[in-house]
Amino acid sequence: MILGLRSKIIPLPDHKLGNIKLGSVTNAICHKPCRVRCSHSTASSMEEAKERIRETFGKIELSPYSYDTAWVAMVPSRYSMNQPCFPQCLDWILENQKEDGSWGLNPSHPLLVKDSLSSTLACLLALRKWRIGDNKVQRGLDFIQTHGWAVDNEDQILPLGFEIIFPSMIKYAEKLNLDLPLDPNLVNMMLCERELTIERALKKGFEGNMANVEYFAEGLGELCHWKEMIMLHQRHNGSLFDSPATTAAALIFHQHDEKCFGYLNSILKLHENWGMH
After folding, report:
1. What are the boundaries of each domain within the chain?
2. Orientation of helix 244-253 relative to helix 66-73, angle to 10°
3. In CATH, what number does 66-273 get?
């Protein structure tokens, strides 16, 4: 479990976080460590944030992480841009929508609505991209409409990179003609802030921000020089930052890297003997 404090990442030992264990992983990417941002940097706020995370996650059993699974599901086949490379991830999304129309932690937590919104929107993008599951898409849209209040709610725990990744997914939804039931003024504000943040970071070459780029890289979308990103940050296992979502984004927006394909395929093979399509 990792607690993000502005530009610092503070590890919290697992034994301090209660009985957290992974749920079933069939056809899904396992839940990666959750990261949250604190709004203050004082010593007292650090301790308060740590305690908040312990209280939040101490009684939650983590499930397969739908956010990463959705990004992997959006990767097109190397042989046809009109076919998914990993249809088994799409199958998992279709089979694991929650009763309230969302995807994400099960059970959910009242302070983690932004995380549920991110996971749900990512799954909706995957379904809409491949034009399947219309009824599930509608249920997911209903969830977003009901819980859209949390997008700019400061009492909610803020996943690192949310300000860049969530509006990036909104922009991708527009490209897919997926009409999201969110306040247009809020959407415009988030998109403008995202563009300004990315523009400033690109001008500085992400100087001073590279320690955190792993938390929002998939949110850069087409604005990212993915070839350069791969050259600089690809790890020995073929991933970008050991993140299935970011590695999948590189293939969605760049499309040509055998090591990235190999990394995602190796993760899926850990749980089922799937071949790459």
Report:
1. 66-273
2. 20
3. 1.50.10.160
200: its two tokens? 């400033």
The burial class, CB within 10 Å (0-12 / 13-18 / 19+), for 160 is buried
Phi-psi region of 142 (alpha: psi -120 to 50; beta: other; left: phi over 0): alpha
Is the CB of residue 123 less than 8 Å from the CB of residue 70? yes
- In whole angstroms, give the CA distance from residue 134 to residue 12: 40
Edge-first strand listing for the sheet containing 158-159: 8-11, 2-5, 36-37, 158-159
Q: Which two tokens stand for residue 213?
A: 């780029």
User: Looking up tokens 């001008």, which residue turns up?
Assistant: 203
| Alpha-carbon gap, residue 25 to 32, rounded angstroms | 12
pLDDT tens for 70-105 read: 999 999 999 999 999 999 999 999 999 999 999 998
Among 214, 259, 263, residue whose Cα is nearest residue 33: 214
- pLDDT tens-digit map of 2-13: 222 222 222 323
Token duo for residue 244: 């299935």
Give the pLDDT confidence of 20-58 residue by residue, as tens digits: 233 344 566 654 444 443 333 344 554 565 455 445 544
Distances (CA, A) of 262 to 66, 92, 118: 20, 20, 26
